[in-house]
Amino acid sequence: MTEVVVRPMNGGNGLHSYSKNSTFQRKAIEAAKELINKAIAEKLDIKIFSSSNSFKIADLGCSVGTNTLLAVQNSTQHPEFQVFFNDQASNDFNQLFTSIPPNIPYFAAGVPGSFHRRLFPNNSLHFVHSSCAAQWLSRVPEDVLDKSSPAWNKGRVHYSNSTPQVMKAFEDQFAEDMDNFMKLRAQEIVVGGLMALILPGRLNETPHTEAYLNKAFEQVESSLIDMAKKGIIREEKIDSFNIPIYFASLQEVESAVKRNGCFSIEIMENIPHEKPQPKVMSSTLRAGLEGTIKEHFGDEILDELFDTLVCNKLEESSLITESCKSVGLFVVLKRKPNE
Amino acid sequence: MTEVVVRPMNGGNGLHSYSKNSTFQRKAIEAAKELINKAIAEKLDIKIFSSSNSFKIADLGCSVGTNTLLAVQNSTQHPEFQVFFNDQASNDFNQLFTSIPPNIPYFAAGVPGSFHRRLFPNNSLHFVHSSCAAQWLSRVPEDVLDKSSPAWNKGRVHYSNSTPQVMKAFEDQFAEDMDNFMKLRAQEIVVGGLMALILPGRLNETPHTEAYLNKAFEQVESSLIDMAKKGIIREEKIDSFNIPIYFASLQEVESAVKRNGCFSIEIMENIPHEKPQPKVMSSTLRAGLEGTIKEHFGDEILDELFDTLVCNKLEESSLITESCKSVGLFVVLKRKPNE
Predict the structure, then answer these.
(1) For chain B, which residues score pLDDT lower than 50?
(2) How far apart are CA A269 and CA A215, in angstroms?
(3) How far is the alpha carbon of B208 from chain A, nearest alpha carbon, in Å?
(4) Are the C-beta atoms of residues A228 and A154 closer than 8 Å to each other?
(5) Which residues lie closer than 8 Å to B192 by C-beta, 6 or more apart?
(6) How far is A60 from A84, CA to CA, in rounded Å?
(7) Is the Cβ of B89 closer than 8 Å to some Cβ of chain A?
(8) Which segments in chain A show pLDDT lower than 70?
(9) Which UniProt keywords apply (chains A, B) (predicted)?
(10) A53 to B108: CB separation less than 8 angstroms, yes or no
(11) Tell me, what's the pLDDT at A74?
């Protein structure tokens, strides 16, 4: 099995930390709050946990920061709850644990590991929440890094402005990862248990190039290309790098769920995402992508890349990005009985 | 409720880290390994988890380092296991999580919080392991810091060489903490579940002054007194500081278990502790006490205190300490049915 790509959000509590630069993701959670409450009220069968002693919740791809705790507060209104905060082992769990307030109404635990792998025992979870996480692929599709493949993504680091072959490779990788993700979660979630997924994505009718987040990622790509032109980074470094993220539509998620067969779709809707100001957006991009970019290009380029180039490009392109749609996908799945 | 004292072991992987300076504690675990295997084989009723999906293990006061993982390997030989590593929120969980090897045969989770508080849902654990942790008291007994009390521990930071009143105050605090610890764990452990406790302690017939670890702590005390005499620290700082640790005997643990009433004693024995060389012992003391001492006296005294003074005193007193007994307490308790 290929090693899962590791790229946690920026740790700590400093200027470039994810904790301080995740208003965008926070808004997604706030928008989903009412929807999750409604889903729990209407879709959760209380019988699934009457035989067990406690209600077990997992937050997959929790990262670090107040969003993590906010998401969980949304769903805890009853006594004995155990909440598992999951993210990769390299996530800043120290920061997360010390920011848990005293006297929380649940038992907290941290679970290190990629959600592209098994994380919990069989039938041990009642509710899974994952916000702004499952858009991260388990890896960059092999073909886009293969010089001999028609899907080689030469000179680019993102798929949205690229060839149909590159786009297809990312689309397929997302479908494969989603299928695997649901297979794993189907083992961990009790029959009748719910899974709420919030994903940054695009509207069904919107092509990749017109989705706001793709436009934002294209500014990162174009900034890296500028840096290569100026000789700050080598061009081959761009050829060998791709951001392992894909922005799906509800249609794609629906197909993946149906193909997988372990879950029924209970709720599925788009939630509007506010588009942040260029400065805020470049910080958001930095907090999320810094780890991945640093690993490949080194950390000396980060300040110029995000704080100057990406920020300027976002400002320059604000008229274009304004017309782009920014949406989240909100999907609630229920674990079907085993056949 | 009084706030529980927070003093995690030194984090990271550096020179003074707990991870690199815990051979002493490691030996305790190795010595207990066979005993724990035997306890599980003979004392664990397989029926207690046949109805559940997985066997849930908690390691309380896990700290950071390979000991944590070693202790757990000792008890995992079957398929679906979930292991909860617990220590205070300020423990270095990042270091712990990144040191978990790939392909471990269990699902790992970290649980932040003091074991003097509730950590898990009702009836959610099958086996609890706690090594070299429960000797830490929830707080320094109030009286020993109270100038108006006959138990005021003026001019000292440890109890073993002090007045009977001080000794009694620590003895009572240990009894109270043990009772509370068992009340909490009795809620968390299923009926029939086991709890293995390993504590550094002393033989039943040995007075506190003749226990090796007390002698070692007295060298820390006497080094601090030397520093106060030299004007490096203020004398009042010594009056207002006590190490919140108590070395009990099996007799004391037995009384606490019987008074508490929730557990039966399945195994209870002394395990021999090897006495480390002075240099190793001063590093062991530093890794364990540094956090507590730094908080009160500041970090500028640490090098001189441990690496020079304590180390020299341990060397000078090696003839005395050689005659002292160093033992661990090994106790396996079983959760009794509710009456």
Answers:
(1) 1-2, 75-78
(2) 22
(3) 36
(4) no
(5) B44, B45, B47, B48, B334, B335, B337
(6) 8
(7) yes
(8) 1-8, 19, 22-24, 46-53, 63-79
(9) Magnesium, Metal-binding, Methyltransferase, Transferase
(10) no
(11) 55
Q: What is the CA B315 to chain-centroid distance, rounded?
A: 25
Residue B59: alpha-carbon gap to chain centroid: 12
Pick from B54, B107, B123: CB nearest A119: B107
pLDDT of residue A44: 77
Q: Which string of b and e fits B280-294 if b means at least 16 CB within 10 Å?
A: ebbbbbbbbbbbbbe
Place of tokens 């202790």: B71
Decide if A5 contacts A137 (C-beta within 8 A). Answer: yes
What pLDDT score does A46 carry? 67
Return d(Cα B246, Cα B158) in angstroms, integer: 9
CB contact under 8 A, A112 and B108: yes
**Does the CA dihedral B44-B49-B50-B54 come out positive or negative?**
negative
Torsional class of B231: left (φ above 0), alpha (ψ -120 to 50), beta (otherwise): left
- Contact of B82 with chain A, judged by CB distance below 8 Å, is answered with yes
Contacts of A53 in chain B (CB under 8 A): 121-124
Distance between CA atoms of residues B208 and B28, nearest Å: 20
For a pLDDT cut of 70, what percent of chain A falls above it? 88
User: What is the reported pLDDT for B4?
Assistant: 58
Residue B148 identity: S
CA distance A119 to B33: 27
Q: Do B124 and A84 touch (CB under 8 A)?
A: no
Nearest CA-CA partner of B69 in B44, B95, B46? B95
Please give the domain boundaries of chain B with CATH numbers for all domains.
23-316+324-335 (3.40.50.150)
Lookup: tokens for B331: 């106790």
Dist. CA B135–CA B178, nearest whole Å: 9
Are residues B70 and B32 in contact, defined by beta-carbon separation less than 8 angstroms? Answer: no
The C-alpha atoms of residue B160 and residue B43 are separated, in whole angstroms, by: 36
Helix, coil or strand: residue A23: helix
Q: How many residues does chain A have?
A: 339
Please answer yes or no on whether B80 and A109 come within 8 Å at the CB atom: no
Backbone dihedral region of B33: left (phi > 0), alpha (psi from -120 to 50 degrees) or beta? Answer: alpha
Q: Please tell me whether the interface predicted TM-score (ipTM) of this complex is above 0.85.
A: no
Give the distance from CA A25 to its chain's centroid. Answer: 9
Q: What are phi and psi of A5, to 5 degrees?
A: -65, 135
Instruction: Note whether A90 and A82 are within 8 A (CB).
Output: no
DSSP string, A39-84: HHHHH--GGGGTSSSSEEEEEET--SSHHHHHHHHTT--SSSEEEE
CB-based contacts of A50, cutoff 8 Å, min separation 6? none
Residue (of A131, A145, A3, A135) closest to A67 by Cα position: A131
CA dihedral B248, B250, B253, B258 (to 10 degrees): -160
Binary contact (B93, A90; C-beta < 8 A): no
Q: Please, where are the H alpha helices in chain B?
A: 23-43, 66-73, 93-98, 164-188, 212-229, 235-239, 250-260, 278-297, 302, 311-316, 318-323
Chain B residue numbers touching A104 (CB-CB < 8 A): none
Residues 6+ apart with CB under 8 A from B122: A53, A54, A80, B187, B188
The alpha-carbon gap from A18 to the nearest alpha carbon of chain B, in Å, equals: 16
Per-residue confidence (pLDDT) for residue A67, from 0 to 100: 59
Whole-model pTM: value is 0.86
